[in-house]
Amino acid sequence: MKKTIALLLLALLAAMPLNAKSIEDWKDQILYFVFIDRFCNGDKSNDHEVDTSDINGFHGGDIAGLLQKLDYLENLGVTGIWLSPFFTNRNERFFKHQPYHGYWVHDFWSVDSRFGSEKELVELRQRLRQADMKLVLDMVVNHMGYDAPFVEANPEWFNPPLDIVDWHDTEQLTNRRIFGLPDFASQKPVVKTFFRLVGRHWIDRLQPDGFRLDAVKHVPVDFWRDFNASSQNDGGPGFLLLGEYLHGDPEATLTIWKEGGFNSLFDFPLYYTMKDVFARGADMRRLASRIYFDRKYPDAGLLATFLDNHDLDRFITSCDGDERKYRLALAFILTARGIPTLNYGDEQGLTGAHEPEPENRRSMEFAADSDLFNFTRELIALRKSSPALRRGLQCNLHADAGTYAFARLMPDQMAVVVFNNDDSPRQIDFALHADGLPKVMDSKIGPARAIVRQGRLQTSLAGRSFAVFMADVKTGHYEKVFRRWQRRFFDEKAWGSRTVTLKLKASYLPEKAKVFFTGNFAEIGNWSTEVRKALPMQKISDDEYTATVRMPLARIFEGKCFYRLEGQTVWQPGDNLIAEVADTGSEYIHMDWKNLD
Q: Are 492 and 484 in contact (CB under 8 A)?
């Protein structure tokens, strides 16, 4: 009887159309990562050595528990679930660690009984469809679990048993073991075929809306091209292929996106910038600089933004428990471009570092009336109500050390989001480069008010606060300003260019030192220290150097000075310079070489 019911449910799913018609539709989603074992224990009968006091053991969470808590997630407002791996894992501990996380797979074709059953997964898929929510499955393709019988039966499918020693060596990263886990020889046709079939199996069985793809940097790019093409074909044109490429360099992210055939990646470069800015109080212009890079991506709106995950410290822990900082970061990912992805418990402020023990993986806490839950729900509701916040072109409007403002633009709507990352209140005044906004606007969240006069927005924000100003939707009202910003987004020089003078104050540099400036654009060297690429600076006095360079208006660039002497390269101490090519005001950008003690 149970088998008959399961088959009927499968048939019902097969008759249902997939929700996503195109990848573009993912910009409307807010994903939520459910770590099965740590979310909710809904069925005690499948518990296996459960000990909720053991951070490395099973806590009893299962698919039944997730089914019981779907109302909680609907109340929060998220639109899709990224589910941790449910495949059958090793049976017992490996030293002190249980395979509660699901990443030590022994059998890719079955559901681990400690998490539940395939029947429950089918029910989950059905319930999510009824709630118009998406399902993203976590696919593990790099390795199998310790002592998996499959490895002994198919040794030729795996790379030699060598561990990664140099984590900067690409060959080791892709062809050696992570912490001793058996590493698939992903370059072999038989392995590629195997995982194409695994992907097809779960697409057929559960009709998910996408895959989250684990450990991208540890698998050769030709495997990803093959697997992603196959999964896209099986899943349909709107099937999400979300890669976990753990790398802070946006250029590297861009390369793997294009070469690997992904249609989305986790935005690790933005994550590291948000951590520096919101948690550590770094210069807000770092955010503006990171967003400025968006023009190089295929579509930055398809990057998955996040504050933490099961492999990182909880963001509120990175903020030293300061909820004001944490709320700013939450507000940023829920108003900025991208697909916001919450880790389970982010809306409850769960704390914990990832090391030395994974305290970031504590069991979920449910409090549907907590202040932080309501704050998160309010932000989600605002995003869902606004086409501009979901799909609008993101444009930098203003940035200094402590404040940042950006616009989200569509032909029918303009939203302006302003942040004050200082502890003290700030008066903020900046040019909008847009007409047609109301003269007075109240923030959609919080008490702030903005005055718009003579093309500028003026507002006052309390310390560690933000505001979201939004005009009513009017068909085509912002068409002109949208097209203007769009032209500039795709063509930096559309607004013109300007010559700026870099001035360096530097006492006590060696007399024969040759000083240069390099940074993140071709005009300033593309971070090269080669003499023929970097920008040379002329010595005009005993302690002053200058260089001129022409760059597009409104460009935000980063760079740093260095000198060459007797074949050695010595970098300017301190943080990078971050500056904007302003259309008015001084043409000089000042730097100071301060030798650190």
A: no
Is 409 found in the same domain as 379? no
Domain count, the chain: 3
Helix (H, G, I), strand (E, B) or coil at 335: coil
| 194 and 235 part of one domain | yes
Give the pairing type, strands 339-343 and 449-453.
unpaired
211's tokens: 């895959």
For residue 486, tell me if it sits in a domain.
yes
Give residues with Cβ within 8 angstroms of 424, minimum separation 6: 463
Query: Out of 24-33, 258-267, 582-591, which region has the weakest mean confidence (pLDDT)?
Result: 582-591
Q: Tokens for 346?
A: 């982010």
How far is Cα 37 from Cα 112, in angstroms, rounded to an integer?
11
pLDDT tens track for 42-81: 999 999 999 999 999 999 999 999 999 999 999 999 999 9
In the structure encoding, which two tokens stand for residue 297, read together? 């991506």
DSSP 152-183: HH-GGGB--S-B---TT-HHHHHHSBSTTPPB
CATH number at residue 326: 3.20.20.80
Provide the terminal-to-terminal Cα distance of the chain, rounded to the nearest Å.
Answer: 77
Average pLDDT over residues 336-347: 98
Pair (432, 325) in one structural domain: no
Domain that holds residue 429: 393-492
Instruction: Note whether 27 and 339 are within 8 A (CB).
Output: yes
Separation in Å, CA 417 to CA 373, 394, 458 = 21, 10, 12
End residue of a domain, out of 439, 468, 492: 492
**Tokens at residue 502, please?**
């870099």
Residues 358 and 409 in one domain: no
Q: Write the burial class of residue 487 (CB in 10 Å: 0-12 exposed, 13-18 middle, 19+ buried).
A: exposed
pLDDT bin (cut points 50, 70, 90) of residue 21 is confident
Query: How far, in Å, CA of 2 to CA of 17, rounded?
Result: 25
Residue matched to tokens 């390269």 = 569
Per-residue pLDDT, 1: 41
Judged by phi (left if over 0) then psi (alpha if -120 to 50, else beta), residue 261 lies in left
Given 389, 420, 446, the domain boundary residue is 389
**321, two tokens:** 């428990």
CATH of the domain at 470: 2.60.40.1180
Task: Give the tokens for residue 420.
Answer: 């004050």
